Amino acid sequence: MGKPAVSIPSVDEILRASAGLVACARFGHGATVAAVRAALGDYRYGLRENSGVATISRGDAAKTIVAKAVEALEAANAPRLRRVFNLTGTVLHTNLGRAVLAEQAIAAASSAMRAPAALEFDLETGGRGERDDIVRGLVCELTGAEDVIVVNNNAAAVLLVLNTLALSKETIVSRGELIEIGGAFRMPDIMARAGTKLREVGATNRTHMKDYEGAISSDTGLILKVHTSNYMIQGFTKEVRTDELAKLGREKGVAIVDDLGSGTLIDLARYGLRRERTVQDAIKDGADLVTFSGDKLLGGPQAGFVVGRKSLVEACAKNPIKRAVRLDKMRLAALEATLKLYRDPDTLHESLPTLRHLSRPAGDIHASAERVAPVLRKALGENWSVSPYDCASQIGSGALPLETIASAGVAIAPRDKKQSGRRLEALSSALRRLPVPVIGRIEKGALILDLRCLDEETEFVAQLTTLTLRSAELGAQHDSP
Length: 481
Ligand SMILES: *Cc1c(COP(=O)(O)O)cnc(C)c1O
Known about the structure:
Blueprint: H1 11-16, H2 18-27, H3 29-49, H4 58-77, E1 85-86, H5 103-114, H6 133-143, E2 147-151, H7 154-166, E3 170-174, E4 180-182, E5 185-186, H8 187-194, E6 197-201, H9 209-215, E7 220-226, H10 242-252, E8 255-261, H11 279-284, E9 289-293, E10 304-308, H12 310-318, H13 320-324, H14 329-341, H15 348-351, H16 353-358, H17 362-380, E11 384-396, E12 399-414, H18 420-432, E13 438-439, E14 441-443, E15 446-450, H19 457-462
Parallel strand pairs: 1-13, 3-6, 3-7, 7-8, 8-9
Antiparallel strand pairs: 2-10, 4-5, 9-10, 11-12, 12-15, 14-15
Helix pairs in contact: 2-3, 2-4, 3-4, 5-14, 6-14, 7-8
Bound molecules: pyridoxal-5'-phosphate.
């Protein structure tokens, strides 16, 4: 290996050239120097490997190196939280961030970020205010509850309630309701951390009033009823309803807490879905406290609600854990704006993206599939079959687990069935590499793109021209070099 025949610019020279100065202004001096050094090292290595190229000027070499450095800096600077197209068919997809917020909520959160806000400040008296006052009136009006506090999420709401009402005491729960929600949220574990003793009653499939009655003692902190969200027991079953438990609770002086999980404020039957017990129902049934999420069916930001009897809500508010799990101003602003939309239920299916997606007419989605399929067919070439497809969407996040909604999308399958699994994986991966990654699902030998949640069809279609599969053997027409 001889000395390269090209004269190589120094790091200093590169940084002082105009492109170097622009890069320093954009990414900072330190990061730019490091990136230029790395690019320069690669450049030297490249020269040694092909010693034939000997006619590059010093200036051109500097340009090449800075361009490489900027490319690396841009890649390192790209946001890690990427926007995606959710074409999984699961409307409230926990791994994709659950509810998409309403424009009103986005605007409210942005204002709250941009300027100081009277978060805990009473503008009438000039004295200290309480942050949950921002949504108190609205939540009480919409749910019929006496009082409310809002916290980080529903897991925090449950933790706070258990720790407040049943610390060092027993929490009575039906064995059939000791659920795992996913992401390590298991009822028994949460109870242990909340400092309450789990008192299981009944059998997995059947729990009777006498089971609850028999478990009540001077050690009882509360009776917890849990919405079994993501599963359903069918067959020979028996559960005790909240209204029945409320009667027992009143007789024995024990609080009844109803963890609704998703929680909805409106009758979903309006939108052609199965009716789910609402928060109002749980309050009417006599639950002393009700807990539910902000970013599931409610369609707002991540949050957890504790609503119900004033004395009990106040006790939760005074628990030091409340301070550790309280909401920030951005989410409170977004939550307030989301809740306001519920004052006009007739326009909710337009204003709230979650409900808009859930209630989107199948014909509309079919029409979208008819438009999208030919574009995909062209982008993928003749080795793939692409056709409009009738599929079923899910609500997600544990709401109505067995309920599916008739939907439409596109099914993509390799014409060559050999190693079809690997081909489908390659296709999924190519779709994830698009400027706005596309997430679908693989089902019965095809990649399904459920178009229910595709709001920006034009943008989706436009980026398909850049779709490239990595290897020729996968049957793609457009292969990357
Ligand atoms: C989803 C769910 C939770 C957890 O709520 P997060 O808002 O995700 O913290 C708790 N309980 C039930 C029954 C649920 O469905």
